[in-house]
Amino acid sequence: MPVNTSRRTAFSTGTVLFLAVSALILAAPSSAAKPVNFGKGDDTNQQGGRDSTGIYAAAQIQYSGSVAKGGGTGNVTSADVNWTPPACWYAPYLGAKDFKAKMSKSIEDSLNTPGMGGTAGSALGDVQRHYEDDYGWTDTPGYKDYNVDKDGKGMFWAGVENPNEPDALKRMSCTDLPFWVDNGEAPPPQYEQAISPEILAALAYQHMQLPDTKVTLAPAANTKVNLPTWAWLNKAGFDEVQATAALNAPGFSIQATTTAKPVSLKLEPGTADAQTYPASGECVINADGSIGEPYAQGKSNQTPPCGIKYLRSSGDGTYNLRATITWDIAWTGTGGAGGDLPDGTFGGQQAITVQEIQAVNR
User: For residue 353, how many other CB atoms are within 10 A of its CB?
Assistant: First the structure.
């Protein structure tokens, strides 16, 4: 088998990758069960199949549980500003015969493009040799006739964009040429971005939809200057949330479930003229799963364990009280894998009217 010395230098020309890979896969439209649609990686109801051409994506990621509708980004925000979901990954694409039909046509069309020659033309010819004539390089074997003798015994894997990644360059950074993986086998170790339970867990995190949170207040929307306002959340109003991402392809099926558990509530009064209880504004979760303590008659002279005291009237307007819950995020997946992900946050605002009355009977 002819061997070049470097997987990275064998096809280093960006033009070749664009013609032979990007145009084939990464630029494909986002939809479920459409011909050659593996370029966009998420939908809540994605599947594979065949049409009259015999070419369909084998599988796409399926989301279930508490996830945003239509495959969109959920409402949870990572507390770690340096953490981001994967921008792209490698995943099962097509069987050998289907891949040959698509890839060989793409290569031929590119080679017949007017002006194609020089370095780009030569490198594109090497791509053709790679799949047709067993031309390989370090840690990457070549293929004889697109591996059609192994059709049904494995699949070619290819780069997939995360359509929810706003940076186009990051989205299209999985540019290695499609590679073969036998059924039941793990992808070669050099493909660090090959789809895995951990990647699925991060994608489930990205799509997770946390419940809206409206803190109960006493007094409610109208309170008084220098009067402590009690704030609380009953356990019945919020609980742990789960989102699952799964990928099922011939000979390769994995899944991961990401779980979010509420741990604390942070109150931001919407004005510097206020005092929070506790002083940090961070109300931790109680042993019974609730946060804070409901107000009851006879507590008017007590300090709330979770609440706010406004020191100035809101005048003719209102203050925007923001209540944000922090969620502990963890995941489990195929094969007993699992771990922690960065804490998530989600909150909302409530309009509070503060009146200038110094003494009030509650």
Answer: 18
